[in-house]
């Protein structure tokens, strides 16, 4: 049972609150559980069917017109484990009900439009869990830290993001934003491990070190972005992520809790079940070949 | 070992050959193996890492400019098990390297364009395995059987499909087309099972019985579509699918064999590994908070 693993309401513990200060979050912490790694891995597997059923209900009810859906935004420094979250949490759900978008540095065409232009078409449709690996928040993180956009434009974007998220919320999208929080020491270890293994070289990008050197500026940009865009309708969660197993099981629980709030349910049939049974039974002897 | 499960080259056995006659394919057959269900389920799990590594290499090499990718087209009568194939074969791979598209009845906008208009943007990008659950083949199957398009337009489409697949092949897309072949009796059982379970009602569509009644016409349309569009560059496979476990493990093997032909490999790094290690090591003490 979940109660055995979680000793407290992890969603509430990781939810950003009034007066939130990123500096107080310990990337090594494991709020809500006293369990160890192997128990965490077991809990992840145990709760997967719980997540799948909620997702399948969400997907099923959309077929009869329900507009609700979930958008999970993942933001983090490089090597913080976004890919692992996608693989171990989201990829365990029904692929038809999942829409994953990995946002890269904007193309020339994308740069010629407003920063939300490329995001709009990736908002999940009814019944779908959308996952953004990076997102419109890059436009107030790297763009701010690197000075790719002037301060007044960054300022404008906070408001534009709030407006955008409010609008899609009204359309039926539950927006959930998650920062995976690692320490610079942990990042160094993970980058070095990519450089230790020829099968992982392709995951390494020299530019990651350039960003790494700007760590304090990034943390300040995260703090500001969270302060300016957190709301009850589109909440931020900050998940300590030095322990990969903890981050995965915590994100899984947050997603389950968020989905459960949508109370998805198996839709009633919009046809006569008995009559349809008879139609199938009657349609035998189709004589082929 | 794969040899223990497969006693013959299943890809070669299921590959459509000169003089192919759909009427001679037994949906209950299990070419290439004498194993039973539990062994098939074990083989599926055993071979999954083999598939994942091939896919990850394909994805990795695309990062350095390689254009190759795979497009798997799944076509079948309703309830033939496309969804199970997606869940048990493709969803076991890396989600970043997978692009699933489920084509529905065309929207009004889609109908106002050529039938390939909606397909073009769904062709997978370099390094990606694209899966089409239904496809442009619906435009020579349901559209033909139902008479939604006149015969001369259907005739034109066979050629247009061949041209389209030849063009994307030249761009680096390996096109593989798979028909899951069930019997009408097996379909009836599966439709009835959906009507037995309130949690599956949403998967049932009364229209499926309308199509079912046209079984012989559909089989003829499949035969013609395969005859007209099979080629060494864009081959058809017909997979007996009355046994779900067989269809899954056979499709998995076909996909592995097709990926292996692309010989994907871990790319060489385009940076100096030792110098990058030093950069990471030197970037300590980032003093935050």
Offer a concise description of the structure.
Two copies of one chain form a homodimer. With 289 residues, chain A is of the alpha/beta class.
Report on this structure.
Chain A is 46% helix and 11% strand. Chain A has 289 residues and is of the alpha/beta class. Chain A has one domain: Rossmann fold (3-Layer(aba) Sandwich), CATH 3.40.50.300. A 5-stranded parallel beta sheet of chain A has the order 2-3-1-4-5, sandwiched between helices. In chain A, helix 5 (108-111) links the parallel strand 2 (98-102) and strand 3 (129-133). In chain A, helix 3 runs parallel beside helix 11. Chain A starts with a helix and ends in a 7-residue tail after the last helix. The mean pLDDT of chain A is 96. Chains A and B meet through helix 4, strand 2, helix 8, helix 9 and helix 10 of A and helix 4, strand 2, helix 8, helix 10 and helix 12 of B.
CATH architecture of chain A: 3-Layer(aba) Sandwich
Strand arrangement within the widest β-sheet of chain A reads 2-3-1-4-5
Radius of gyration of chain A: 21 Å
Strand segment count of chain A: 5
State the name of the first-level CATH class of chain A.
Answer: Alpha Beta
The geometry of chain A reads as globular
What are the segments of chain A in which pLDDT stays under 50 over at least 5 consecutive residues? none
- State the distance separating the first and last CA atoms of chain A: 53 Å
Structural class category of chain A = alpha/beta
The greatest inter-chain interface is formed by: A-B, 53 and 53 residues
- The percentage of residues in β strands of chain A lies in 5-15%
Please outline the major beta sheet of chain A. 5 strands, parallel
Helix content of chain A: 40-55%
Number of helices of chain A: 12
What is the fold named in CATH at topology level of chain A? Answer: Rossmann fold
Mean of all residue-level pLDDT scores of chain A: 96
What would CATH call the homologous superfamily of chain A? P-loop containing nucleotide triphosphate hydrolases
Q: What is the subunit organization of this protein?
A: homodimer
């Amino acid at each position: 049972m979940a109660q055995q693993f979680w000793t407290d309401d992890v969603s509430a513990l990781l939810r950003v609150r009034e007066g939130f200060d990123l500096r107080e979050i310990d990337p090594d912490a494991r709020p809500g559980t006293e369990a160890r790694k192997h128990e965490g891995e077991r809990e992840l597997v145990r709760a997967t069917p719980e997540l799948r059923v909620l997702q399948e209900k969400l997907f099923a009810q959309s077929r009869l017109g329900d507009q609700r859906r979930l958008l999970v935004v993942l933001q983090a420094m490089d090597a913080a484990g976004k890919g692992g979250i996608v693989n171990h949490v989201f990829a365990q759900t029904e692929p038809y009900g999942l829409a994953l978008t990995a946002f890269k540095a904007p193309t020339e065409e994308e740069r010629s439009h407003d920063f939300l232009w490329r995001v709009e078409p990736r908002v999940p449709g009814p019944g779908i869990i959308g996952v953004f690996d990076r997102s419109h928040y890059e436009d107030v993180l790297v763009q701010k830290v690197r000075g790719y956009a002037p301060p007044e434009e960054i300022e404008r974007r906070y408001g534009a993001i709030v407006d955008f998220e409010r609008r899609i919320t009204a359309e039926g999208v539950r927006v959930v934003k998650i920062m995976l929080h690692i320490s610079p020491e942990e990042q160094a270890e993970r980058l070095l491990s990519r450089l230790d293994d020829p099968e992982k070289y392709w995951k390494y990008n020299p530019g990651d070190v350039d960003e790494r050197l700007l760590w304090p500026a990034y943390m300040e940009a995260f703090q500001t972005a969270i302060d300016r865009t957190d709301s009850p309708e589109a909440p931020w969660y900050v998940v300590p992520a030095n322990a990969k197993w903890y981050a995965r099981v915590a994100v899984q629980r947050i997603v389950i809790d968020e989905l459960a709030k949508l109370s998805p349910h198996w839709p009633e049939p919009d046809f006569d079940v008995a009559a349809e049974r008879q139609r199938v039974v009657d349609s035998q002897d189709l004589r082929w070949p």
